[in-house]
Amino acid sequence: MFSIARPHRDDVILASVGLSGGLFLWLVGIHVQNGRLFEAPWVSLLPLAVISALELLRRSAPQTALAVGTLALVADQFTVGSLATLLMFTDLVYTAVLYGTPAAARRIPVTTLLVTVAVTAGFIAWIPSADALLIGIVTGLLSFGPALTGVSVRNHRDAAESARLRADQTALLAEMDRVQAVTAERSRMARELHDLVANHLSAIAIHSTAALSIDEPGTSRDALGVIRRNSVDGLAEMRRLIGLLRESGAAGPPSAAPTLASLDALVGQAGANSASSGLTVTLDDDCEAAGPLPAPVELAAYRIVQESLTNALKHAAPGPVTVRLRRSREALLVEVSSVLGDRPGPRAPGSGAGLVGMRERVALLGGTFEAGPEPRGDDGKTWRVRAGLPVAEGAYGA
Predict the structure, then answer these.
(1) Is 232 exposed, middle or buried (0-12, 13-18, 19+ CB in 10 A)?
(2) Helices 83-99 and 45-54 meet at what angle, rounded to 10?
(3) What is the pLDDT of residues 257-305, one digit of tens each?
(4) CATH topology for the 171-246+261-390 domain
(5) Is 23 exposed, middle or buried (0-12, 13-18, 19+ CB in 10 A)?
(6) What distance in Å separates the CA atoms of residue 192 and residue 261, rounded to the nearest whole number?
(7) Quick check: 334 and 305 in contact, CB under 8 A?
(8) What pTM was estimated for this model as a whole?
(9) Which residue in 320, 330, 356, 391 is deepest, having the highest Cβ count within 10 Å?
(10) Residue ranges of the domains in the chain?
């Protein structure tokens, strides 16, 4: 169903003021021209009424209002005329450019300029006097001038809107960057917290279960010793992490972060924790003579070994657990293998977060990561974690 938009309040005011002003000029007998086809003054009220009504459409249908208004202005030229009609026509030209379509905004100024030039040239050819030039100037003031003003205002309005959109996009991008930074930091904190605590808590859970299920004083004493040692070490690690979180402006791996030089102590602790489960942990490291490694690579390698040993403590069957480190010019290869199968005694539950954390650490350095079962010679299976960490200069982002 066809519907007409409700006129804007300002448009109603302009139409009312224009009509009232035109009526006042007609009552006092002020006209703009004489010697026309229709000399009766009341005839000039008809174009005035039409132009006033068109002011109500200056926003909702600006091009239609201009087209009908042009006809009303031509009709006004056959009457004694009204100054209010001329002024309201200039407003219709202005609003047709300002509120019309982009094509209309480009076309109307050109059209009004051509009309102004044509009227000026025609009257100069018909009446070769200064009056002809004056008519051309008036025509330009009534048509081309308002169109040019509309173009200027529209360009400024479009520029302001573009600036606002750019500001909104900049704010949106900044918010997205902030969210991504917060998410990345939370993921880093989650990995650090998991790697720091999981090893100690897994040992505590396994040995406390053993102490509760095996009624032997010697076993209980050994289990309590392991529990106490892991509790103290875990508390120290937590304090270190809390201290790092309280530091402001810290960037990159902290100076107190563990390195590969601490692997001997880590492997020794893992061997002590898992001895009651029938696991023997060994370290095969040939990286010491190859020179220092970038700090992010050392931290990632340490955490991968730590988490792999934690998983072996929780899930591996009795047998050897081997940690191997190999260094080449391009990469550091970290490999941890353990026996895959059932084992007696208590187990600690796993959540899968450890594998996710290891994979994320390797991905951040642009390396490769594999974890899963592999067959071995005695028809059994080995669980192997293998990570390749690039060490070449510029191979990863800090």
Answers:
(1) exposed
(2) 20
(3) 677 888 888 888 888 877 777 788 888 887 766 677 888 888 888 888 9
(4) Heat Shock Protein 90 (3.30.565)
(5) middle
(6) 19
(7) yes
(8) 0.53
(9) 391
(10) 9-166, 171-246+261-390
